[in-house]
Specification:
Strand content: 5-15%
Structural class: mainly alpha
Low-confidence stretches: 5-31, 45-61
Order of helices and strands: HHHHEEHEEHHHEH
Number of strands: 5
Shape: globular
Number of domains: 1
Length: about 230
């Protein structure tokens, strides 16, 4: 299938940043998350009220409103990783999107991405994002997510046209989490009582793969985390 715009390639990058300990238990991680939780309350209120302007960004062109295509958010995270010279695998990328989505639900009471998360063996997954980057396996991603253009008859890179406050929000998420390894991020999503845990480890006869995580359950979980960190 023809490609409208070739996949963007990143330059050679060293390894992932050093691993840290669990975010929920380390107090030094709290300031970043606290800033995340308080800084965006007013912008979320304005967003819900339709008061946030959607004037074009000098760098991104036309901006859209949330919920976004998860592939656009994925590409924005990958752009941030290139800026910081950090490698992201498909597992770490999917978990970053999940944490961004969860905190957005907790503080804005609205989803960041429009596609559903599913319970997979290593945590929450958005299938369309996983499919885009499956070729990379557990190695660093060096391309960008694409989608098919019915009019042009080819695929093109999904532009990360996030509103300015959402760009800042995602940047804050990236700063708070990008130092974790993919496996550590996966473990955070496996926390006892998490939406993933309640589905994956349930005694329901329904098969575990492709079980949809409900946004209301994700929101409740992240609200619970903020309460545990005394950030509500």
């Amino acid at each position: 299938m023809p490609i409208c715009r070739g996949r963007q390639r990143s330059g050679g990058i060293s390894g992932l940043l050093g691993a840290r300990t669990d975010l929920w238990s380390i107090r030094s991680g709290t300031p970043l998350v606290s800033n995340l939780l308080t800084r965006f309350c007013s912008s979320c209120d304005a967003q819900r009220a339709g008061l946030v302007p959607t004037s074009p960004s000098a760098n991104l062109g036309r901006q859209t409103r949330p919920p976004y295509d998860a592939r656009a958010v994925a590409n924005f995270f990958l752009d941030l990783a290139d800026e910081e010279r950090v490698q992201l695998t498909q597992m770490s990328l999917l978990k970053l999107i999940y944490f961004a989505h969860g905190w957005h639900l907790a503080r804005c009471a609205s989803p960041l991405v429009r596609q559903d998360f599913e319970a997979w063996p290593y945590g929450p997954v958005i299938k369309v994002v996983r499919d885009e980057f499956s070729e990379f396996g557990d190695t660093a991603i060096s391309g960008r997510a694409t989608r098919f253009d019915l009019i042009a008859g080819c695929r093109h890179v999904v532009r990360p046209e996030l509103m300015e406050q959402d760009q800042a929000f995602v940047r804050t998420i990236f700063k708070a989490y990008h130092g974790y390894s993919a496996w550590q991020l996966s473990e955070l999503t496996h926390e006892a009582g998490s939406p993933w845990d309640r589905l994956w480890n349930s005694e329901s006869p329904v098969g575990r793969l492709a079980l949809r995580l409900r946004n209301e359950d994700i929101r409740a979980h992240f609200v619970s985390i903020s309460q545990r960190l005394r950030l509500s």
